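pinging the channel bc i need a second pair of eyes. not urgent but kinda urgent?? the chain im working w is below, pasted from the shared doc
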Amino acid sequence: MTARDRDGGRLSAPPSADPAPEPSDERTARALKTWVVLARAYAAVARAVEGQIARHGLTTTEFGILEALHHKGPLLLGEIQRKVLVTSGGITYLVDRLVAKGLVTRVPSPDDRRARYAVLTPEGKQLIAEIFPAHAAFLADVLSTLNEREHEEAAALLRKLGLGAAARTEAPR
C-alpha cells in the first residue's frame, strides 16, 4: 500500500519529505536564525539599491567602481578589485564595460608597464557627481528604520561578525 492508496489518491507528503533534523543545540539554532535574518535583510536592501542604481543604466558593482574612483581618484585595477570585492577576471570585465560606456578610461602606470589605472572620464565624473547624492539620500531613507544608536550598534556588530568570519575562513599566510 502506497501513501497515495492510504490517502484516497492524494499524497499527504512527498515520499522523500522527511523533515530536516532540528539543530542539536541552542548555539546552532541561534546561528541559523541570525543567518536567515541577516540574509533576508541584505536581500531586501540590495533589491532596493539595485533598482535605484539600475535607473541610471548601471549595476551596483559598476556604481561601486565609479563611486570608488570618485572618492579615491585613479586606482589600479587590483585596488578596485579589493574595494568592490570581485575577482580579477571580473574587474577586467566590469572596467571594460565602463570603458565601453565612456565613463572610465585606462591609463598606464608610470611605475609599472604592466599595470593600468582606471580613471573617470569627464562623462563618468559628471554622472557619479549627479547620482551619488541621490543614492546617499536613498540609502539614508531605506535605513531610516534604525535610529542613530541602532545604526552604530548594527555597524559594530556587523563589523565584528565580518572580522570573525574572515578569521575563521582565511588561509594562514
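so The chain has one domain: 29-156. and Helices lie at 3-6, 26-54, 60-72, 77-84, 88-100, 122-142, 148-169. — does that match what u expected or am i reading it wrong
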